Structures are given as structure tokens and as C-alpha cells.
Amino acid sequence: MARDDMPQSDFRDAILWHLAYTLGKDPDHAQVFDWRLALSHAVRDRIVDRWMAATRATYRADAKRVYYLSMEFLIGRLLQDNIVNLQLADEAQAAVESFGLDYAGLLLDEPDAALGNGGLGRLAACFMESLATLGCPAYGYGIRYEHGLFRQSFAEGRQVEAPEDWLEQPFVWQFERPEARFTLGFGGRVATRDGRAVWEPESFVQAEAFDTPVIGWRGAWANTLRLWAGRAVDPFDLDRFNAGDFAAAVEAEALARTISRVLYPEDSTEKGKRLRLTQEYFFSAASIRDILRRFEADHADLRLLPQKVAIQLNDTHPAIAGPELVRILHDERGLPFDEAVGITRGCVNYTNHTLLPEALESWGEGLFADLLPRHLQIIDRIDEADAKAHPDRRNTARGDGKVRMGELSFILSNRVNGVSALHTGLMKTTVFADQHRIWPDRIVNQTNGVTPRRWLLGCNPRLSRLIAQTIGDGWVGDLEQLHALEPHVADAGWLDAFAAVKAANKADLCDWIAREHGVALNPQALFDVQIKRIHEYKRQHLNILEAIALWQEMRENPSADWTARVKIFGGKAAPGYFFAKDIIRLINDVAAVINADAATNEKLQILYLPNYNVTLAERLIPAADLSEQISTAGKEASGTGNMKFALNGAPTIGTLDGANVEIRELVGAENFFLFGLTAEEAEARRAVPDHAARAIAADPRLTRAVEAIRSGTFSPGEPDRYANIVENLTRADYFLVASDFADYWRAQREVDFAYANRTEWTRMAALNVARSGWFSSDRTIRGYMQDIWNAKSLLGQE
Ligand code: RUG
């Protein structure tokens, strides 16, 4: 094949062409890595035309565009996702295998783009895919971190963090846009000229765009994920270099790149430092300029902005986008202040993801004034006007020397949404009660969802095949069709096939764990999985306490008919969150002792898999029997892992928290293992003096489990290792681990009992699949389009 023969249709030829002419590799010497890149290029070629057609259609229709601003996009690997959505899987596999290569291995060679911490970032990635699937013209805006979430390993059970290097290899999916750059100012002062405020920043950096196309199901539509990277305005100082000061010559570039260097390893906890606020302004301001540039290319009247632009703030991280838009409209375009605020409010909406007070961002006004002096004035003016209009308002964006981003986002938004019914209800009665009283129509609910392309079709091919054989493949684009599986659940033959899928997925997982981690698991055991960020409110320590109590009881009563269990944990702790890191170490220590106990290890094994990420989730979820969603009620805004497990046939053991409530309603209370205090009861329990000590004293199992930790059973020679955890459990216990323990134990024994009847269990698992269709992110995005953005699909017009 010659260079000019760039193949259009034959996939095999396209791969060979890219191997030669894009990568410069001879097939005889190509490594898995080269083949993977060649395959990626061949797939990318199939995306580009559709991507451009979608962009052209949006311009033609002068359609309203949605702009999803998010500090995090946890996109994971993209090759398989793109192949699945383009329905190229069979062709790609055949082509790859014709070269004598392992297809699955090739897909797994791609590093995870871990540009997010957890649920919030993964939600943004699911939303981007659903927006494309639904043909809604949209852009995702974020930061192109050079280092995504840190790589986790364990040393003597402790979490060790290493930098993550996803950009070490070429990232085939992105297109650099050196022409799309904006210069952004920081610091300085605000001058007054001709009676108008003029911001005179002290320093400047550039934001440069990198675009990744996001293709929807069946390749019908593609949108853009635009990530910004920091660059210096003058990257190289030749005079300094010639003077021999080589480091100083590139200092400006090093500083500018710092902005997009690392993802903050925080989730649900505030990390209010200068760099973080700089990052937030950097990507929000670049995005606002890009939005205005696109709008102004075709429209002269800025008052039309709300008809053409919907901006969604994913959490408060991009909240500064609101004041930035007001600033540009007023200071730079000359609109009256109130009109600028009105237009901004017409465009901006805000999604809240947490009620934890420490996770609601606020900044000291000193820092804010230093970095963004004009924005502070604008925020003050809006807040004062608001206070005048509503003198009885208590929660304002300013006060106590702080800038409160939740309040700021609220007052500058058209709609504010929570992410599950319970969470939205609690927003109205707790953190935003004051605002809700004044603006009763502003808060709406949009329960989260997950994309079925990645979280069923892509990650669980066996189950997807069985579903397709049973009800056809319409469910991939319309997940509610899974309901059609329900009648088959009564069919013993079908249930056997369903059980065989789970067994095969578990066998695959066991093989992988044996290969990668040298641990042999009992595939007959119940695979009980808790994977998520490590946080006190998520209560991994409740899970491990139950494991300790179970182990103690098994040792005491070895001849009882115990249901064999493998408890699998995965998740990272923020590096500065020491309590969470203690929990990790405790789980690893407990695992070491229990796994070494020959008296019980056929019945109980504990495994903490390091470096939990999207790829590991894709492996574990299809093989899970039981989904642990055990947060303290009222603390998990929604959860999305809970939906993925249910969709893949793992019933939940969980509290009435976040979207668990809706999962239970939909799959049926009899197919869900409920335990624990409700959000209201939890609040009341906290007021009971010594609630933790009382709960422990009332439960001999819990007493014994805590005592084992306290006495050093799992930290021989160092009984104090977990003094902090013991102290917390027995005294403060804000997250009510002790209070919920007894009921959790009861629910776990119900699980044991139910799992022992394998046919009944399989029925329950299958019903979880059949009734989880509502949790598609397509449904969620339709809700946003209708209730929040007033945006239309352009499918069919490309
Ligand atoms: O903790 C929440 C999850 O409950 C939720 O499912 C997810 C997506 O809505 O967002 C998570 N979250 C919240 N991540 N960071 C925060 C706080 O900023």
C-alpha cells in the first residue's frame, strides 16, 4: 500500500496505513503499543466526518448550545468506548486478530485518562456521552491536567501515592488547537476610567485548547470536549538565556504550566489554596471567552445570549464563570450592570453534589481580592442588591470575610439542581433553605444516571449478548426496554443462562486477580464489592468491622453453614485525609490476618485491590454479586456506582441514602437489602449523648470487633496503630458506624441466607437488571434539556 492509498473502508488496511504513515512503523517490528495507536487512528478517522457534520448542523440551525463546565472529566480509556459507539467491535476484533494480536489486550494497553477524582468526574464523562447520543449540541469544558489522579500502591498496607502520567504516551483522541488561545489576567488592581471600572491585572497566562471528539451511540452525533492547558504569554526569555540564566529563561512557562499540571486530589473536602482558585478561574474564564467568541461570530445582540447559550456549572468549582460573564458584559461590552446580571442568570445553572459543609467551597476574601479584585467587587454588588431586595435573607455569598461559592452559584443561576430525589429535598430544607424560601422554583431535581454503552454494553459483553438474544438490542439506546426481560425471569432456562454469565464474569476476574495479584479466590463465594473514594461518610470502616465480627463468629462456630464470601475493596484516599488513609491500612491489616487463617479462609477472604480506576471498575462490576452502598443516610448526594452494580445484576446492601432510595423503589424492596437509620433518624441520633458508646455496649459482636482492633490483633506489637479510629468509633462517631452496625450485621446475614438459595438469588439479580433502565444518563440528560437548558436535539439534521 502506498501513502496515497489511504483506505476509506477496509479497516485492516486502515490500521496498516496508520502504522506505516502516521507512526512510521514496520509491521514486523511493531509492538502492542504501536498497533493500539494505529487502531486508534483508524477509529478516529471514522469519527471526524461525523464530528464536523454535527458542528456544521449546529451552526446551520443556529441552535442553542449547552456548555458543561467541569473541573473533572473522568473519561478512562476511550478506544473501546469509541469502537462500541461506532459499532465497529466485530470488524476491529477481526482486523486485530488477523495480525495475530490479542484484541482485549490491545484495548487494555490504553492508559486511563483519570482527569477526575470520583463520581463527579465520571458523571461528567457519562453526560458528555449521553449528550452526543441524544444529538444535543454541547461542549464540555475542563482542564487538561498533565497528571490525573495519583497512582495508588500499598506498602505494608499503607497507601503510597505516585504521579500519574497518562500523557507520557501520545493521546490519539485529542486535537491541539494552537489558534484557540486566550490570555487571562490575574491579580493587579481595579482602576476607574470615565466613571467605569477597569481591571488592570498584574500577571497573564494563556489558555490553549485541546479538543477531543465525543461520539454518541451508533455514531449519530459527536460533540467536543475542550480541555485547557496553561502556557506562558512569553514562554522563552532569550535575553535571560543569553545572559546564562537558563532556568529563569523558562520560568514563566514553568509557572503557567503549573496551572494545568495536577488534578487536585480532593473529593468532598475543601482544599482552598491559591493554585486551586487559580485553576478554577483559569478554565472558567477561558471557557466564557470561547462561548462569547462563538456567539458573537453570528449574533450582534448580547441580549440573545440566554436563547443560545446554556451554561451548566458542575459543582461550585466553575462558579467564578458567573461573575466573569457579568464582568465582560458590563465592563468590556458596556451593558448596564443589572442587565449583565440578568443575562448571566439567564444562561447559568448550577448542580450541587454535596451537602457536607466542608465540601461547599469558600475562599478567604484576602486571597480572592488578591487574585480576582474586580470579581470581588462584582460579587459584592450583586450580593448587596440581593440583600436589599430580600432583607430577611440570611445566607449570602459574602460575609465573615469569606466568598461562599455555593451561595454565589445559587444567586447567579437560573436553575439549581440536586442529583437524587433525597438530596434535592435536603437541599431545600438544609443548606439552601433560605434561598429556597425566596426563590421556590429555582431548585429542581435531576437524579444522576450512567451511560449504558460503557457500563453494560462495553464492560459486560456476556450479559449484553444474553439481553440482546432475549429482547433485541434496542435497549442500548433506550434502556427502559430492559423491562422486557422481566417475563423471562420466571423461565428456569433463562435464569440458568443469566447465572452462567455471572459465573463466567467471576471466573475471568479470578483469573485476572490470580495473574496480577497472586491471590486465588473461591469463585463459588459471594463477591461482595465496595469500590469508591475512601471517606468516613462512605463508611468502609463499617464494612471492615462487619468482616472482623464475621471472622470472629466463624472461628467460634466453624461447623456452621457459613456462606462463603470474598470482600473486595477498591478506592483512593485524598493524600491529606489521614483518617481515610488509616481506614485503608486497617482494611489491609485485617485482610492479612484473616486471609492467613486456615480455619476460616475457605469461607472468608478479603482483598483490597490497589489503584482503583475506571478500568478496574469495568472489571469488577460485571463480576460482583453484592453492591455495598452503606453511607450514613443524608450524606451521599446520589452515588452512581450503585446504579452500575444494579444494572449489572448485583443487588445492593444499602442505607436509605442518595439514589439508593430510588434504586430500591424501582428494583423492589424485596430485591434490595436495606439497613440503617434514615437521614432524619441519623440527625436525631447524633443528639443522643454517648450514642456510640451505648451502641457498642449493647452489641457484643461490635464490642468484640472494636476490642480486636484496640488490642492490636491486626497490628501486632503496635496496638495503638488504630487509636484514632477506635477513639472516633467509640466517642464522636459523627457518621454513626456504631449505631448502624447491628442492623448492618442483620442485613448481611439476610444476604448470606438469600445467596444460599441460588435460584432465588439469580432471580433477584436479574430483576435488578430488568428494572434499572431508568438509571440511564440519557434519561438524566433529557431531564436537563427539558427542565433546565431548554435545548433541543438536532439528530437527523446533521
Ligand atoms: O459524592 C457525590 C456523589 O454522591 C455523586 O453521585 C457524585 C455525582 O453527582 O458527586 C459526588 N461528589 C460530590 N464528588 N465531589 C463532590 C463534592 O464536591
UniProtKB/TrEMBL annotation:
Q: Give yes or no: UniProt keyword Transcription regulation.
A: no
Q: Which organism is it from?
A: Paracoccus versutus (Thiobacillus versutus)
- Which Enzyme Commission number(s) are listed? 2.4.1.1
Q: Which UniProt key words apply to this protein?
A: Allosteric enzyme, Carbohydrate metabolism, Cytoplasm, Glycosyltransferase, Pyridoxal phosphate, Transferase
What's this chain's function? Allosteric enzyme that catalyzes the rate-limiting step in glycogen catabolism, the phosphorolytic cleavage of glycogen to produce glucose-1-phosphate, and plays a central role in maintaining cellular and organismal glucose homeostasis. Phosphorylase is an important allosteric enzyme in carbohydrate metabolism. Enzymes from different sources differ in their regulatory mechanisms and in their natural substrates. However, all known phosphorylases share catalytic and structural properties.
Required co-factor(s) are: pyridoxal 5'-phosphate
Q: Name one GO cellular component term.
A: cytoplasm
Known PROSITE patterns for this protein? PHOSPHORYLASE
List of residues that carry N6-(pyridoxal phosphate)lysine: K644
- A GO molecular function for this record? pyridoxal phosphate binding
Task: Give the subcellular location.
Answer: Cytoplasm
**Top-level taxon of the source organism:** Bacteria
What are the recorded Gene Ontology BP terms? Answer: glycogen catabolic process
Q: Tell me what this protein is called.
A: Alpha-1,4 glucan phosphorylase
Query: Which family does the entry's similarity section mention?
Result: Belongs to the glycogen phosphorylase family.
Q: Which reaction does it catalyse?
A: [(1->4)-alpha-D-glucosyl](n) + phosphate = [(1->4)-alpha-D-glucosyl](n-1) + alpha-D-glucose 1-phosphate
InterPro entries for the chain: Glycg_phsphrylas, Glyco_trans_35, Pyridoxal_P_attach_site
